Amino acid sequence: MGTMDLRHLSVVTELDLVAGVRQGVREIRVCEKALLTPSAIDCIRDSGATLVRVPPASPASAVPPDAAPTPAQSPAEILYRSPEATALKEEIIRVGRKLWERQFVDGNGGNISGRLNDRYILCTPTQCSKADLTPDDFALVDMDGNQVAGTRPRSTEIFLHLEIYKSVPAARAVLHCHPPHATAYAITGTVPPTCLIPEHELLVGSVALAPYETPGTPEFARTVLPFVADHNMILLQNHGVVCWADSVTHAEWGAEVVDNYCRTIILAGHLGAPLVHIPNRKAVDLLETKRKAGLPDPRYALPECQLCDLPEFPDGITVRPRESGNPGADHLELGSEELETLVQAITDQVMAALKRD
């Protein structure tokens, strides 16, 4: 069996392909405007068949009357109510409630989206608590942000998500929320150090900090572009976090991990002792595991001695992003003579105080 003709279908699913793939079909012909579900795309790729988009089949084609969509339904609307979209909606609803229960969102804050295929994104609506989402609340948008299905208006921050999807083909889900401990870092313009907890290194690792812009604007959406290819977790200054992953659930895991990590560092800062980082040679092992999992990390190209970004003193538990060309901008470096003078001055003051006593 050489060719499989599916030009009569507006939406092609895996079920439409199984029979032909099992018989060894080498070419699958679909309408040039047809939508392919993610499972259908995976099925074609795994089978090694060639996908060919062609003009719609002529009316003379043998098409069962009940196979074509009704006139009232567009291809986008059919996709919006497809099994794949239904499953994604259910996953986003579960994640939205988890975010609300963990107090990572409040009011109508935060937004979540998932990629249905290379042309359409399903996202949460504007002005809706993530604890109250229902299957009919979602919006379907194209890669330009145009809403093509759903009755409630899309999130006003969908363009932030779209910039990530366009820049990172591996991103299947994007999540924006306001976890309090990670946001505490964001509003101080700092990022947490690395090499402290293995789970954070594997799932998140190095965290980026994007500069502040007014939420919902094109400028805001573009703030993540310098970082998103090498980081799956970005702090949005004075705002919150945005993260991407291969699923909505995994993106939510990232938000949980980074907030718990930031909380732990903040708590450790009250103990008055230096933070002990994972040895560099062990950090190499973690990064290799992470590389094999296909997760991004800008430290892959760094030498072993530069993997862990952690100050030696207990007052330096946060790391400020350094400006290019000014590597020492965030700390004071003393020469040996200056240090000796400072120590002597402190010693003299202590001895004078003891004599007074």
Nearest-integer average pLDDT = 85
Largest sheet, if any? 8 strands, mixed
Helix content: 25-40%
Q: Distance N terminus to C terminus? A: 101 Å
Radius of gyration: 26 Å
Can you summarize this structure?
By secondary structure, the protein is of the alpha/beta class.
Secondary structure layout:
Elements: E1 3-6, E2 11-12, H1 14-22, E3 27-31, E4 35-36, H2 38-47, E5 50-54, H3 75-80, H4 83-101, E6 111-115, E7 120-123, E8 139-142, E9 147-149, H5 158-167, E10 173-177, H6 180-187, H7 198-203, E11 208-210, H8 218-222, E12 233-236, E13 240-245, H9 248-268, H10 280-292, H11 336-356
Parallel strand pairs: 1-3, 2-4, 3-5, 11-12
Antiparallel strand pairs: 6-7, 6-10, 7-8, 8-9, 10-13, 12-13
Name some characteristics of this structure.
single chain; 357 residues; alpha/beta; L-fuculose-1-phosphate Aldolase; 2 domains; 8-stranded mixed β-sheet; 3-stranded parallel β-sheet; 13 strands; 36% helix
Question: Would you write up a description of this structure?
Answer:
The chain folds into 2 domains: about 5-70, no CATH class; about 85-270, Class II aldolase/adducin N-terminal domain (L-fuculose-1-phosphate Aldolase, 3-Layer(aba) Sandwich), CATH 3.40.225. Helices cover about 35% and strands about 15% of the residues. The chain has helices spanning about 15-20, 40-45, 75-80, 85-100, 160-165, 180-185, 200-205, 220, 250-270, 280-290, 335-355, and strands at about 5, 10, 25-30, 35, 50-55, 110-115, 120-125, 140, 145-150, 175, 210, 235, 240-245. Residues about 55-65 and about 310-335 have low confidence and may be disordered.
